[in-house]
């Protein structure tokens, strides 16, 4: 026989455990939408022909400057090329450069932060002074200076953006290493005679990497913006190969008469940037 005093608690627990699907979806609308945007952009980059089977480089001059319609979702440009097809096929270069930049910054910055936090002393001071110098320079300005020195091309754009992001990853990794290295299990590993590099690989790094990965998701959105900005300025791939930033640049001369040439590719970039930053901050606790 169930005691009357405990019955309300049992009912309440049962009600909490049974959350309706509608309430579950409502609480995660932002995550679902942001994930859908990123997955769609990745699908564009991997299999663009499924979403836009046309040729992004050829057009019909007689159909130039057509506004968005059922036949041309994003309209056509000054050469009669379908803009939606060019946006879809341009996702490959733009996102490849972004992934390369974030991957470079993640690996190099994490290694520098790990070395700085674990070694301490003069090594820590030297690395952090370099990081401070990098942080004092605006990321876009640093990227612009680097890509000017390296030369034009999507690969050089990715390297330049990646170098400009290294300092953020190094700073976050160092702070996490400083927090973890004095943990009891790390001290126990040192006391038991485990080699220092084994302690770093097996104990310090795995327990320090989560905030860095969250930062990578946030910086992914900023890297998309930086890569597109450099492409807009003409440092990316050569025309007529489509790239998100270059598509906006090509349409700016026709902004008064063909607004869709800049607005719609710009909205795609904004959607990807906001989706990446939302997911990074949602699951990373706002780590920066």
TrEMBL record:
Q: How does it sit in the membrane?
A: Multi-pass membrane protein
| Lipid metabolism as UniProt keyword | no
Which InterPro entries would you find in this protein's record?
Answer: BP-dependent_transpt_permease, MetI-like, MetI-like_sf
Q: Which Pfam families match?
A: BPD_transp_1
Q: Which GO terms describe its biological process?
A: transmembrane transport
For this chain, the family text in UniProt reads: Belongs to the binding-protein-dependent transport system permease family.
Instruction: List the GO terms this entry assigns under cellular component, sorted alphabetically.
Output: plasma membrane
- The answer to whether keyword Membrane applies is yes
Q: Subcellular localization, per the record?
A: Cell membrane
Keyword set for this entry?
Cell membrane, Membrane, Transmembrane, Transmembrane helix, Transport
* Coiled-coil blocks: none
List residues traversing the bilayer. Answer: 29-51, 91-115, 127-150, 156-173, 212-237, 257-279
Q: Which organism is it from?
A: Nocardia camponoti
In Swiss-Prot or TrEMBL terms, this protein is called Peptide ABC transporter permease
Q: Where is the ABC transmembrane type-1 domain?
A: 91-280
